[in-house]
Amino acid sequence: MKILLLSVRTDERAAIEKWGDRHPDVDLTTAEWELHSDTVDQVAGYDGLVIQQRSQIEPDVYPRLHELGIKQITTRTAGYDVIDLQAAADNDIVISNVPAYSPRSVAELALTHTLRLIRKQELVDQRVREQDFRWTGLQGSEIHSLTIGIIGAGRIGGTSARLFHALNAKVIAYDIKPNHELDDVLTFLPFEEVLQQADVICLHVDLNETSKALIDAKALELMKPTAYLVNECRGPVVDTTALLAALKEKRLAGAALDTMVGEETFFNFDLRGQELPNQDLIALREYNNVIITPHVGFYTNIAVQNMVDISLDDTLAIITGETSEHTVG
Q1: Cα-atom radius of gyration of the chain, to the nearest Å?
Q2: Which residues lie across from 204 on neighbouring strands?
Q3: H-run or E-run covering 50
Q4: β-strand 94-96 against 290-292: which pairing, if any?
Q5: pLDDT of res. 329
Q6: Cα(314)–Cα(325) distance, integer angstroms
Q7: Per the UniProt record, which residue ranges are transmembrane (predicted)?
Q8: Dihedral angle computed from the Cα positions of residues 261, 265, 267 and 268, in that order, rounded to the nearest 10 degrees
């Protein structure tokens, strides 16, 4: 069996080698390039394909993969919006993802972002760098006095809820399919009520047609002017133009963003000394009540190992005629 892993980062190689040591009968090849029209022919001769990329796979790639005998694509991520599921199905290609590589990794960043926001840590850090040690404007809030609103109480959102509950915050949540196993740590409410009541809104939804621009101007108007927004899921879930307007008009206390629309042009790039390629990023960086991190919610030792292990386990299962519980489409 020959499996090709694409877009492999240096930090993934140790995890890949560990998996390979446990499966000596599988030939693993790693590459740094993405799957596109101009690279698809390099997939020839492989039985399985594992990807992790931020740009769309072109329509002509799928029939070519079919011609090359590729029967599956597994992505080492939870998101799979770079893949056209219908085009894959039309060419007999099974798609799978890694829906829960480490719920704690993202949930813990949501907690970290929340604590930094409610203690005004960005402003504190800025002042200290400037040798301004005054307290004025730095009064924070204690988390047990706040209501945390979780939008999307699945694996990650549920884990976030348990972390916040452990710190004695009141937790409310909205989910299209409420998981009542979480009733001991949160209360499910309608979407609008969560927005209206929460002091912090944490986003943990999948990206799909119903969640694009879920947090738009109307949603932001429902939030308290003293509330914070934390986005740990996908950039398009938030209407950035509406968010910037709310920040400018001080209808929102602040935001923490681990993901943004257009992030593929700047996150995980060294842009020191260069002009930034995204006007929204430039605008958001002007606010000392906005935290921006470069989509690192997933980026922990445990999560990276799980992403590699689960994706390779699923690839091997599918190409050997078995099934995976992580297929999508």
Answers
A1: 21
A2: none
A3: strand 48-51
A4: unpaired
A5: 83
A6: 8
A7: none
A8: 150
Q: In whole angstroms, what separates CA 235 from the centre of its chain?
A: 8
Q: How far apart are CA 49 and CA 39, in angstroms?
A: 13
Q: State the Cα–Cα distance between residues 75 and 48, nearest whole angstrom.
A: 11
* SS3 at position 134: coil
Report helix angle 121-129 to 103-118, nearest 10: 60
pLDDT score recorded for residue 136: 96
What distance in Å separates the CA atoms of residue 172 and residue 190, rounded to the nearest whole number? 10
Residue given tokens 């740094």 in the structure block = 32
pLDDT classification of 54: cutoffs 50, 70, 90 = confident
Distances 93 to 25, 31, 72, 89 between C-alpha atoms, Å: 24, 21, 5, 6
The CA-based diameter of the chain, rounded to the nearest angstrom, is 67
Task: Return the pLDDT at 73.
Answer: 98
* Per-residue pLDDT tens over the stretch 242-296: 999 999 999 999 999 999 999 999 999 999 999 999 999 999 999 999 999 999 9
Find the mean pLDDT for residues 65-93.
96
In percent, the amount of the chain with pLDDT more than 90 equals 97
290 membership: H or E segment, kind and range: strand 290-292
Q: What is the pLDDT of residue 177?
A: 95
Active-site positions read 234, 263, 295
**Structure tokens belonging to residue 308:** 């590699």
Cα–Cα distance, 171 to 155 (Å, whole number): 16
By DSSP bridging, strand 327-328 and strand 94-96 are antiparallel
| pTM of structure | 0.88
State which amino acid sits at residue 53.
Q
Alpha-carbon distance 191 to 203, whole Å?
Answer: 12
Tell me the C-alpha distance between 74 and 93, whole Å.
10
CA–CA gap between residue 69 and residue 15 (Å, rounded): 27
Q: Report the SS3 class of residue 2.
A: strand
